């Protein structure tokens, strides 16, 4: 029970208009919540509020009623007794007459209307009373917008939920609605008002009802909004869009057939306007009306409708017909929204009433086209008016034909013979029933306009069959007259199209385009009842295939024919046409695959491969055929090479591999079964390599073959399933064992042994090693690697010999091997610990291995052999650089999985950079450079190994972790005294680390990093060797300058930043550096004026030099920058 | 001074497409060419009308010639009417804009195209006289007018 005092206080607060809105809101909420938890009853509240509700003070009464209404609004789900609801309805209905307190009354009525079923609702009688009061007392148009909206909503609710009660009010309701809507301009109100009209139309559907008598008045009230003119901006808070309003209006207009006498003339008039939006709206609305008003009412407007529609088609179509490759499967001319709407209206009208088609068929303009079409043979040569005629009429006819089977028949009966006559395709037999091949004469001249019309008609009938195949499974259109007509002419039509394809007239592009498009259309008729017989279909395929295999080179016709074949192929696959698939297989696929395998055709080999792979990827059977064919071809060419020494066959092999990599591998997810085929291919590659005894690639194109082979091997393993990976690995391992590589496993890892190592592998062994490494790189962690220990040994030895793939493979292995300790699953019989053991612990001095020291923790710091070589304790310089690069790749593998050992590797690398390291002397500059670049290997994302595609184990945020560990070390080293060379190398390393870490990390540490970055920039800008590194570092700096966090620290460092950037604006070695430096200077203008003003002269002088830059882009940036800097003062440029 | 506009109803042409330079040669210098200069000046606004000099056909791509060896640039512009008193202002604008955008070693000559102006010689003389140009630019009213014309496209 709420204290009476407190309640009074709340009431006072709400009623007092001098209080702030939040206070009022709070008191309303307080009252509502105490009602909700039953500490206060409605009766009590009303009794307490009596004075406020009945006082003669207008303001207080209005507030009081509003309070009661709003409280009710928040209690919509609270059960109330019928008596209370009844009383409240009575009260609010009565108050509708009180214009000073109208807002409260409206809110209250709405709140009561919205009550849920379970909580006590307004009865029909009450609703009727409310409506009556509303209609009699409220002049909606005299109110403010928000009140008007409430009023409209109330009416909407009444009509929606109490339609029975409302229907008794008849004319009064219609009349009051007219009055309420008349002159409304607010979009929010309008959208409700349009809905009101729709509801009214549902309420009084009868042609003798109250709406019928007032229909013209009502239409006058809202018809004037059409077409909707809407200027509100998008960011309106209510978010009402023009489309919503236009849709609402259209629904209102089409809501009842009673509006028909007024609506259709209006819409037709607006359709003839030149305003595009009016046209689109009219067409949309006419479509709605056609559906709702019914055929009978629409019939009398058909004449006017047809001519308006025809005009719209003419005005919305351009005269350009594209003969480009892309448009072979599309209409070939631009289509705008008006056109689209016109198409759908025409289709709707024809679908709904076939008699509309009479207007189309009898149209004089359409009929004359067939007589004039043969006047011009070239599309290009036609005047624009004729072009327009052809395009528009082909559209109209194809849309009408597409509408239904009946309409298709009529269109074909009326026009098809004439079209054939015009094209010069004449039946010779007198009775016309029996038609045999060869009884047709094909005129030598091709009429583009006619061909286009013909293709559009055929395409329409084709689309029609496809359209209803989707709904009914057993189509049969063979009896339809259009179908028999196409059947009668199919032979000569195909002849005509084929002759167009082979045409060599002066506008042969258009000829060829229309020919191929025609053949394509004829080839895509669906199902057994297709008007094109199987032998004719095969003829089409033969024609297209012969174009592809002829010696034409990459011409337009070649590309068109290929595209057409691909479309036919995917059409067959999509609609499961087994008969046609057989023809396709035997005519197209077999032929192309056999040519691609033999390579004996006039075409260049890559083109042949392209055609084959495009055609074959339309179905999984074809792919199988192709991959098997290519496999065979690969094997025979490769053996031709190593047996007969034919260099050309190796070229062929690399093309073949390239085709597989580029065309088929990316689509492995789409084509089922491809993965297995490719794995088989990979294994037979290994078989070939196994059987070739000698291999050399010291000739033109040999290296390309090796690279192609490595790429495809890695990619295949990358996409293969684990089982297939295992089988490839097994096969490859056997080949490795049979080669001389196996001997390397016995080389002990001692200084003495390693010192003599050279790149001494034969080309064949090198190929095997690289291929095998690419397999290991791409294998997933779950794949099992046989005899991993000796493999690691092998890779380690090859690494010392300088084979980078071996190093990458080692990195990949340490990245993916199981942990070993703690019983985790070890796939390959060798754990990570053991692998690290082998890599790091081989002791050179004694030539014996030291087993891990019991604790399981392995030290791989500066004491290990690999690092000793890196630090130059022994071995040649070349040996040392190999070891450093190798160590970097191994480190990358460990880093990505988040293994701690990488820190020690990093320390070794850092040690290499010091001017005085633990070996007591500085390293050779080249070794130092390698060590600095090793950080780039560690941090950057690699394309060739250790990425997601190759199943690398990647720990989240590994870059960030490494960054936070290594940067302080590098920083402190740079601070300490170092020789210039080592200082520079440390900066290079730091630049690699900084530029590869996500920019947010940099932004968090800008204060600390910015001075380092700047110093790095000035050190690196001394010569041109590190220009790329310099650029990436500069990009990081520019990133910090454009961020608010970075700007704060930039403010402190402004003088060094500007000095550094000014120097870089004249960096001679890389244009982008200068450009970016100038952009950075421009970005600096964001800093506070007092901070940058002193540097103005300095910057302007530097930029003045850049105005004379040899590169145009730099000059452009310089102009912008100079203007901006000059304008920070009121005076002009001081030169 | 007459009130009202000197050419009240000029012929306005459409703006041409901006020149898009295709992939440039990374290793070769690209020197200043006439199109560069034209890009700089085409958007200068006419002192009388809210149109650019390009739109009013005062300038076209052919009106700029560059001699790269001697570092000389010659611009010939065509005033819209023979007696146009704005010719000097237009010339001043051209000079001011190019001064801002070109390095100092270029010598810019600005002429009205032969036969296009009633007082051709004196305008040419005025436009290429260093002292008079400098004096004109010190006149705050003129300076403001020139600045408005130059920067109209960047505001």
TrEMBL record, chain A:
<dbReference type="InterPro" id="IPR029240">
    <property type="entry name" value="MMS19_N"/>
</dbReference>
<dbReference type="InterPro" id="IPR039920">
    <property type="entry name" value="MMS19"/>
</dbReference>
<keyword id="KW-0539">Nucleus</keyword>
<feature type="domain" description="MMS19 C-terminal">
    <location>
        <begin position="703"/>
        <end position="1084"/>
    </location>
</feature>
<keyword id="KW-0677">Repeat</keyword>
<dbReference type="InterPro" id="IPR016024">
    <property type="entry name" value="ARM-type_fold"/>
</dbReference>
<comment type="function">
    <text>Key component of the cytosolic iron-sulfur protein assembly (CIA) complex, a multiprotein complex that mediates the incorporation of iron-sulfur cluster into apoproteins specifically involved in DNA metabolism and genomic integrity. In the CIA complex, MMS19 acts as an adapter between early-acting CIA components and a subset of cellular target iron-sulfur proteins.</text>
</comment>
<keyword id="KW-0234">DNA repair</keyword>
<feature type="domain" description="MMS19 N-terminal">
    <location>
        <begin position="46"/>
        <end position="313"/>
    </location>
</feature>
<comment type="similarity">
    <text>Belongs to the MET18/MMS19 family.</text>
</comment>
<dbReference type="Pfam" id="PF12460">
    <property type="entry name" value="MMS19_C"/>
</dbReference>
<dbReference type="InterPro" id="IPR024687">
    <property type="entry name" value="MMS19_C"/>
</dbReference>
<protein>
    <recommendedName>
        <fullName>MMS19 nucleotide excision repair protein</fullName>
    </recommendedName>
</protein>
<dbReference type="InterPro" id="IPR011989">
    <property type="entry name" value="ARM-like"/>
</dbReference>
<dbReference type="Pfam" id="PF14500">
    <property type="entry name" value="MMS19_N"/>
</dbReference>
<keyword id="KW-0227">DNA damage</keyword>
From TrEMBL, chain B:
<comment type="similarity">
    <text>Belongs to the MIP18 family.</text>
</comment>
<dbReference type="InterPro" id="IPR039796">
    <property type="entry name" value="MIP18"/>
</dbReference>
<feature type="domain" description="MIP18 family-like">
    <location>
        <begin position="36"/>
        <end position="108"/>
    </location>
</feature>
<dbReference type="InterPro" id="IPR034904">
    <property type="entry name" value="FSCA_dom_sf"/>
</dbReference>
<protein>
    <submittedName>
        <fullName>Protein AE7-like 1</fullName>
    </submittedName>
</protein>
<dbReference type="InterPro" id="IPR002744">
    <property type="entry name" value="MIP18-like"/>
</dbReference>
<dbReference type="Pfam" id="PF01883">
    <property type="entry name" value="FeS_assembly_P"/>
</dbReference>
